[in-house]
Amino acid sequence: MTWLFVVLSVSTLVGGLGVVQTRNVVHASLFLLMSLVSVAGIYLVLFTEFLALVQVLIYGGAIIIVLVFAIMLTRTSEYPRITDNRQWPLAAIAALALGAVLAASFWANPHTYSAAQSPAFSELANSLFTRWAIPFEVASLVLLVALIGAIIIARTGNGGEGSP
Amino acid sequence: MTPLVYFQLLSAALFVIGLYGVLARRSAVLVVMSIELMLNAVNVNLIAAASHLEGTGSFVNFDGQIIAIFVITIAAAELGLAIAMILRIHRNRGTVDLDEMNLMKW
Question: Which of B62, B85, B93, B100 to mutate to test the interface with A (most CBs of A within 10 A)?
Fold first, then answer.
């Protein structure tokens, strides 16, 4: 186990725990940023440079910005008050039970492969636009529908005619 | 080289943290953040498996990376819709507290 993996894992998990533990929503988004960038580092440990690039661009850039905008637009005085609900011990028990099952199943079936070589960008792009061309197009359609749906849901309903 | 099982354990830990956040948080924005954590955990698992395992049959050894790209796409679409719904609910009801969203509960 390389030290880089250990450092990045600790950083990822600390960021995740910060997201679910802090009382400040803006701090939670910054912890999430730390966790997501550390995951990009994990991708680099796995020699998947393209995914690391995509992770930093989309998660570290776009998604964190959108979340911070959502926090800003819904800023109310209730954020420090609403943190955890009353069922949090049950939630912790459920999460720990699932974690125990997952860890046990991963330990019980250890894979001994150790290939970890990255395909070239050209191979990845070739596969994405040949074997995976139809899922790629469907993904673009899903993005378009989600975009239109988000606009329709979020706009103020007192505009011109045809408003819901 | 780090064995695959450590990446899988990291993925499981991150998923469990996200699950706890989804179940225990009351603010809608924090629940969305926890969902992003869970999606990232799945991506770590996919990419670790894709770069450690040789392709067998009709699968080649970077199909996992492409599926991870699709997961990121769906995560972006889901986040946009979730934020739009949160803004709408905040405008209509003046709160983002999930415990107070009980219109469809009986």
Answer: B62
Type of residue numbered B69: I
DSSP state of B95: -
Query: What is the span of the domain harbouring residue B13?
Result: 4-98
- Name the residue type at position A158: N
Into how many domains does chain A fold?
A: 2
Task: Indicate whether A75 and A1 sit together in one domain.
Answer: yes
CB contact under 8 Å between B62 and A124, yes or no, is: yes
For testing the chain A interface, which of B23, B70, B71 should be mutated: the one with the most A CBs within 10 Å? B23
Distance CA B72, CA A60 (A): 12
Binned at pLDDT 50, 70 and 90, residue B59 comes out as low
Q: What is the pTM of this model?
A: 0.88
B106 within a domain of the structure (yes/no): no
Q: Which amino acid is at B74?
A: I
Whether residue A150 and residue B25 make contact (CB cut-off 8 A), yes or no, is: no
CA distance B52 to A106: 14
Is A96 in the B-facing interface, judged by CB distances under 8 Å? yes
**What ipTM does the predicted assembly reach?**
0.89
Burial environment of residue A43 by CB neighbours within 10 A (0 to 12, 13 to 18, 19 or more): buried
- Residue B90 sits in a domain whose CATH number is 1.10.287.3510
Tell me if B97 sits within 8 A of B26, measured CB to CB.
yes
Q: How many domains is chain B built from?
A: 1
Structure tokens at A145: 């529908």
Alpha helices in A75-132, H assignment, sequence order: 88-108, 121-130
Residue B105 lies in a domain: no
